[in-house]
What we know:
By secondary structure, this protein is of the alpha+beta class. It has helices at 2-26, 35-41, 43-54, 73-76, 101-108, 142-150, 156-164, 290-298, 342-346, 397-400, 418-423, and strands at residues 57-59, 64-65, 71-72, 135-140, 175-183, 194-199, 202-203, 217-218, 221-235, 242-248, 260-261, 270-271, 308-314, 350-351, 365-367, 389-390, 412-413. Strands 3, 4, 5, 6, 9, 10 and 13 form a seven-stranded antiparallel sheet that branches. A two-stranded antiparallel ribbon has the order 1-2. Strands 7-8 form a two-stranded antiparallel sheet. The longest helix is centred in the N-terminal third of the chain and has 25 residues, at 2-26.
Amino acid sequence: MKQILKFSHCLLLSLLMYNCSETKTDYKPINLVSDTSMAASNTDQYIWEKMVRIFQTKTESPLNLNWEFWASAEHTYANACEKSEWPGDKIQKFLGNPKAVAEIDSINNQRIDSVSNFETSAFTLLTLNFDNPYYEELRINKAMFDYIQDNALYNQDSVYKMAKEGKINFPKDAMMIKAQWIPVDSSQVGSYYTKIISGKKTVVSKVQEAIDTPNYVDASVTNKLMGLVGFHIVTHELPNWVWATFEYSGNVGICDYIGCKDDFGCTESYIAPNPDNVVNKGYNTGETSKALNLLFEENNVPEVFKNYRLKGSQTQYTDNEGQPTILGNSILEANLVSSSSCISCHARATLNNLNPAKRQSLGMFSDMGGDAILPGEETDTTTVGYHPVAINGKPILKDYKYNSVTPDSTYYRTNFMWQLAQRAGVCDEE
């Protein structure tokens, strides 16, 4: 009997040891976990690992990064009637001096000259600096570009048809970057990542579009030194995408209103907004973490990017308490930061069919913010410009069904992509 008990005890102990061994074997360090798992549970580390790969040096002299060779939005949607080819590395031989994002845009569009269609921010008149508008570009990786071209999503009819059928679904490795630049001087080289840019574009802000006599802004530059002041990185690793925004650490409003949150790349995992929401007073944004420094070294990321901070990342409409998650860049979203939500805004990227020649999308704002606050009226807690309120939180389902009596008024989603809703063209060929 004792031998049986002893055998049973040993058998039980062996099973326990086997289970423990199996548990240890199944455990994987975070760097071995799949991208999807990391995106969902360790989003900040996931987004930094994506960032360092696309910010690797691609050409040393002149200096250009991987993402600067991605297709521009202008090139992607250049022809509403037929697909475009991936620009490829052939553009490298054209990169001389000035080396510029605008120049690459010119090459992408077969206009190799000093004047390009370099586009300014849609929120030009929301910025804090009315004299120097912020310049903006949108670039997409090859996986995203190929999906658009293969499905004719450069054509609005195709976009609407696929959206109505619920078939727009980008591949998991689709990625885009929206970057914004400001004029800088030579003393700031090494603090900002800089480019010499030539471009010309006269724009009007979206806020001004509905006004009878809008204020047009001449956003022309010639061989101008520009610094990268902020950027969004967006990936389709999760069904609702992964949204992240970065800023130059010296931006005076970097943590205003919503703070800065980074659990991986910064020695300060959370930086609270200034007391009483006093804005534009600057922040101590800490240092890059040892783990991030190692990633930079392993991936040949220029040293200057240690001067940039992940402000926050977003994968859900609401937090665990059901409150809307808020994420906005102090430059790209300007006066929208306190209500901005990347995921909620892009959920409203839609098209209806009331007017096939000019289809409509859902609006982004619940309130246009009234009159503009001019520079002379600036207060301690309010920035100049317009102060619209962005729609955030979970999608408002009733908004999509505009009029049940008229099916063509229903808004269909374009898989979170405003570029499909706004940039896809109408083919005039019969």
